[in-house]
Automatic annotation (TrEMBL):
<protein>
    <recommendedName>
        <fullName>BioF2-like acetyltransferase domain-containing protein</fullName>
    </recommendedName>
</protein>
Length: 357
């Protein structure tokens, strides 16, 4: 799967698959595992999947417009502006991401933590002027790797709170909201389909529904997946597209399941936001993913956002981190990153936890 995925990006260019992304894609060998790797050389970025600047500066500024404590917002804007001013000296987006699937959540194969030191040495020799990074790490699922990264001089920065369910089948029988979702599922007039064939109209519809939710409703800084991405990821078996169609055969909601090594996430999801919420399209699309995870006994990473909704369905909050290695860089680039680390841990992480962001 890694070879098929990276080959498509190398052959066709990143913007063919993610409209607002410019990156160089390669394969990195970590022991017995091949991992997708992205390489950026400091150019301005438009989405966070390869850009910590977008993730920690641009996206944070957008999120502050929705921050629940309005009294804190002016002070937090000032903090973000101050950090941004310092980070301009870090060349933050001159960066190499290891295991970057270019989605909101990167599932990680069972790589050997014992290779961290040698891998770090190899990567810094190959990319002496680039920051090294690895996204989507949690202590619950990656504790040995995180410990090895920290021992090798990598630095953890909190990125967001994610919501994890390790026992989906059990939660399906216990949680009141999941039982209600199942009743909605059984009574809906929409027809469920786990797509075996991806037609161009279906790929276009899936990309459009994703855009309605993640770009139009949430943020243009999210990755803008194209119909070509939908078609390619379906063809190589990377994402299972679970859709619900109306009586005319039109897809009205979907969940895109990405899973391996016993873990699953829903990196693409969408629904027709023009239909009355009482129809429950968001619940149905999400429930398609929960049912899939339960059926295959997969731990489910529900990603971030909609915290009350996910907690009511058995998820528990877990801080997600990105690991960065920059010890090989000159002091003028390291010091701004130390400032970011201090602010992220002392201000960002407590706020993420308190407000369940």
């Amino acid at each position: 799967m890694v070879e098929d995925f990276t080959s498509a990006f190398m052959r066709d260019g990143s913007s063919t698959y993610i409209r607002n992304l410019q990156t160089q894609v390669d394969v990195h060998r970590w022991g017995e595992q091949d991992l997708p790797m992205t390489i950026n050389h400091g150019n301005k970025a438009a989405t966070f999947v390869c850009s910590p600047w977008v993730g920690y500066v641009d996206y944070t500024r957008e999120e502050l417009s929705r921050f629940p404590n309005r009294a804190l917002t002016p002070a937090l804007h000032a903090v973000v502006s101050g950090v941004a001013g310092v980070l301009r000296f870090s060349d933050l987006d001159r960066i190499v991401h290891i295991n970057n699937w270019m989605m909101s959540t990167n599932l990680l194969a069972a790589i050997d933590p014992g290779l961290v030191a040698s891998q770090t040495e190899e990567l810094t020799a190959r990319f002496p002027s680039h920051i090294l990074a690895m996204r989507s790490l949690t202590w619950r699922h990656n504790s040995r790797l995180i410990g090895a990264l920290e021992a090798a001089g990598w630095v953890l920065l909190p990125s967001r709170q994610v919501f994890l369910v390790d026992d989906v089948p059990s939660q399906m029988t216990r949680r009141r909201d999941l039982k209600r979702d199942e009743r909605l599922w059984q009574n809906t007039s929409l027809r469920y389909e786990d797509l075996q064939t991806m037609t161009l109209p279906d790929a276009e519809r899936i990309a459009a529904l994703y855009a309605m939710l993640y770009l139009d409703k949430y943020s243009q800084l999210n990755p803008s997946f194209t119909p070509a991405f939908v078609t390619m990821t379906h063809a190589i078996g990377m994402i299972r597209y679970l859709v619900l169609r109306d009586a005319d055969g039109i897809i009205q909601c979907f969940g895109g399941m990405h899973h391996f090594a016993g873990h699953a996430t829903i990196p693409l999801m969408g629904y027709n936001t023009g239909i009355d919420q009482r129809v429950g399209l968001y619940r149905l699309g999400f429930h398609a993913g929960s049912r899939f995870a339960a059926r295959h006994n997969l731990a489910l990473n529900m990603s971030s956002g909609a915290s009350s909704f996910k907690i009511a369905r058995g998820a528990t909050a877990e801080m997600e981190f990105s690991a960065f290695h920059f010890r090989h860089l000159p002091a003028r680039r390291r010091l701004p990153l130390d400032v970011l680390r201090t602010v992220a841990h002392r201000i960002g992480m407590p706020l993420l936890r308190r407000y369940k962001l």
